[in-house]
Amino acid sequence: MLKGFKSFLLRGDLITIAVGLVIALAFSTLVKAFTDYVINPIVSRFQGGTSAGLGWQLGEDGNDATYLNIGQFISALIYFIIFMAVIYFLIVVPYKHYQARHGMKAFAEPGPVKTCPACLSEDLPAAAGKCLHCATEQPPATGASTTTV
User: Where are the transmembrane segments (predicted)?
Assistant: First the structure.
């Protein structure tokens, strides 16, 4: 039982995911600091005066619970876009390049699939000779019976 757990933990893709998650969390902190200390003051400045930010007070003045803060939403949106760009360009693109050098396709479009006439599973590769689910022999793929996902 421990041997199986150890092999599960030491699988290459699990390690890759764990490293990617740690890197993503580190970048998340960096991007959050950027939006909190650079973007938020710029967005708040557009409101002008002594306002708490870009938005409207829906209740009593000074009550933060009833302040509709559009500036914080804009900052969160900017944070999300920057964070996704950082993840894509610093993790996904190098990973795709690394996988391509090793003859594998990472994040590739799935190939054409066909439906098994016996069990109606729709996830069979078009070139499959047997069904993955019910093990029935499959007819050769034709252009009309294949679909892409």
Answer: 73-95
Checking if the pLDDT of 149 tops 80, the result is: no
Amino acid sitting at position 108: A
Are 31 and 88 part of one and the same domain? yes
Alpha carbons 142 and 120: distance in angstroms, whole number: 17
Is residue 54 located within the same domain as residue 82? yes
Judge whether residue 40 has pLDDT over 60.
yes
Q: Which domain holds residue 10?
A: 2-101
CATH of the domain at 73: 1.10.1200.120
pTM: 0.50
- What's the CA gap between 9 and 11, in Å, rounded? 6
Report DSSP letters for 5-52, one per residue: HHHHHT-HHHHHHHHHHHHHHHHHHHHHHHIIIIIHHHHHHTT-TT-S
pLDDT beyond 50 at 145: no
Is 70 exceeded by the pLDDT of residue 125? yes
